[in-house]
From TrEMBL:
Keyword Chloroplast: no
Chain's gene name: LOC111487092
Main location: membrane
One Pfam family this sequence matches: p450
Gene Ontology terms for molecular function: heme binding; iron ion binding; monooxygenase activity; oxidoreductase activity, acting on paired donors, with incorporation or reduction of molecular oxygen
InterPro entries: Cyt_P450, Cyt_P450_CS, Cyt_P450_E_grp-I, Cyt_P450_sf
Entry similarity comment: Belongs to the cytochrome P450 family.
Cofactors required: heme
Species of origin: Cucurbita maxima (Pumpkin)
GO biological processes: brassinosteroid biosynthetic process; brassinosteroid homeostasis; sterol metabolic process
Protein name per its UniProtKB record: Cytochrome P450 724B1
Length: 484
């Protein structure tokens, strides 16, 4: 008779371990079958070469997402593939993916403007620079912003420029608002940055060349005489020449930094850059142009949007804004300058500014490129593909913002999560360094505007995303002094 099989504790343990391994493998297989591996999102690559670029860029009211996104999101979902600006691309209207893209700058994604824009921006621009060069140049801009904010003459200068703009409108009943505030925003910038008045001949030349420069960004990259692109490249060369000339003059005179100058002739930031930062000539020119580029058109556009939305909102919005500024003015002596303490009182004003950014979308989307294969949830983004996080889709998402088309500054008071639901200034390592400067400039300007004027826009006026926001008729306003 055979003896019954005996199992040693070791063989039992081994069998159990093998069973556990087999079970785990089975479970893993089952799980993998249930969750599909990340894949390219659905979408449409459009026509050969141009892809879907023209329909993506089709102008629409900037307070809407436009028909292209409407159609694509309803057909493919909030993340889809396409072919834009000459490359295969992923378009993201998904808040989480957008944040992921912004936070992973230089790790998984890099900034990637169409090649043509490099010709206009110049190779040293921090807007296209990466790594250490980006950090170095960005630090200069960050220090410019804190230099301005801590400089009482900057606050006086913004205040004085606002007052003189209000005075220049005294005899007028109609103003082309965008043209006027572009000049205002540029004046603020060139005064602080270069120490010149925008109505000096050199200031006017800068404004003129900048207009041409900006037009190049939204033009076809045809470098042929007469085209907007060609003119923009030339305008950059002229602007660069103007800044270099100024640097030469300053070197000739000898720089004295840290010495208080009398009256309005205070230190300007070009002097500070030249003495305190180890940058070569081309880098200085680039950082100056980047600050002007980043700081003046965007700020002026936002001012236009605020004025537009106030004119098209229920009267209680403007009334509340006016009440805030009357209270501030009543606490001051006649003609007394605004200061940082006053700015801190402008809570509702800041909510008006934020709400105009949410509704008006100064920056609709960004340009990025995947530098390696990226997997995000069930989405696969191949290395080398362009990626476009679209901000307007998040800003106008009805699941995040009830009645998204409604201009309602109070939502910023009532919903403490609002700042997490909008990204008008981008995010991550490239978050706009000029936020506080733009807000302060606009708040001071609004103080004088609401206390001095009432306004109406013409009925057919509206902000259009080209994708840069432009008003149909340069925002033609009918104005009336408040006392009338
Ligand atoms: C309403 C006003 C403004 C808006 C809506 C705005 C928006 C933005 C956005 C969305 C970005 C991110 C770009 C990206 O990630 O590729 C950015 C970057 C930048 N902004 Fe602003 N901006 C405004 C005002 C200003 C001002 C006043 C300055 C001047 C100091 C400025 C200077 C810059 C610079 C230099 C960058 C590049 C930063 C980097 O790449 O690290 N911006 N801005």
């Amino acid at each position: 008779m055979e003896a019954p099989a005996s199992f040693s504790p070791l063989s039992i343990a081994l069998s159990l371990a093998m069973a556990a391994v087999i079970l785990c493998q089975l479970l893993l297989k089952l799980f993998a079958a249930a969750t599909p591996s990340p894949s390219l999102p659905p979408g449409c690559m459009g026509f050969p070469f141009v892809g879907e670029t023209l329909s993506f860029l089709k102008p629409h009211h900037s307070n809407s997402i436009g028909t292209f996104l409407q159609y694509h999101c309803s057909r493919f979902g909030t993340v889809f593939k396409s072919h834009l600006f000459g490359s295969p691309a992923i378009v993201s209207c998904d808040r989480e993916l957008n944040m992921f893209i912004l936070q992973n700058d230089d790790k998984l994604f890099k900034v990637s403007y169409p090649k043509a824009m490099h010709g206009i921006l110049g190779s040293n621009s921090l807007i296209i620079a990466a790594g250490d060069t980006h950090r170095k140049l960005r630090n200069v801009v960050v220090s410019f912003v804190s230099w301005c904010k801590s400089n009482p003459t900057f606050l006086h200068s913004v205040d004085k420029l606002s007052v003189s703009l209000m005075e220049s409108w005294r005899c007028q009943t109609r103003v082309f608002f965008c043209k006027e505030v572009k000049m205002f925003a540029l004046s603020v910038m060139v005064k602080e940055l270069l120490g010149i008045e925008a109505n000096e001949s050199v200031g006017l030349r800068i404004l003129d060349e900048f207009e041409t420069y900006m037009k190049g960004f939204v033009s076809l990259p045809l470098n042929l005489p007469g085209t907007p692109y060609y003119k923009a490249v030339k305008a950059r060369a002229k602007l660069s020449g103007i800044v270099k000339e100024m640097m030469k003059e300053r070197k000739k005179k000898g720089l004295v930094v840290g010495v208080e100058k009398e009256g309005d002739d205070h230190e300007n930031f070009l002097d500070v850059i030249m003495s305190n930062w180890k940058l070569d000539e081309e880098e200085i020119v680039s950082v100056v142009l980047d600050i002007l580029l980043g700081g003046y058109e965007t700020t002026a556009t936002l001012m236009g949007l605020i004025v537009y939305f106030l004119a098209h909102s229920p009267p209680n919005v403007l009334a509340k804004l006016k009440e805030e500024h009357e209270a501030i003015r009543n606490g001051k002596g006649k003609g007394e300058y605004l200061n940082l303490e006053d700015y801190k009182q402008m809570e509702f004003t800041c909510n008006v500014i934020y709400e105009a950014m949410r509704c008006g979308n100064v920056v609709k989307f960004l340009h990025r490129e995947a530098i390696k294969d990226v997997k995000f949830k069930d989405i696969f983004i191949p290395s080398g593909w362009k990626v476009h996080p679209v901000f307007s889709a998040i800003h106008l998402d009805p699941t995040l913002h009830p009645y998204p088309q409604q201009f309602n500054p109070w939502r910023w008071r009532d919903d403490k999560e609002m700042s997490k639901k909008v990204t008008p200034f981008g995010g991550g390592p490239r978050l706009c360094p000029g936020i506080e400067l733009a807000k302060l400039e606009i708040a001071f300007f609004l103080h004088h505007l609401v206390l001095n004027y009432r306004w109406k826009t013409s009925s057919d006026e509206c902000p259009l995303a080209y994708p840069y926001v432009e008003f149909k008729r340069d925002l033609l306003l009918e104005i009336q002094p408040c006392s009338c």
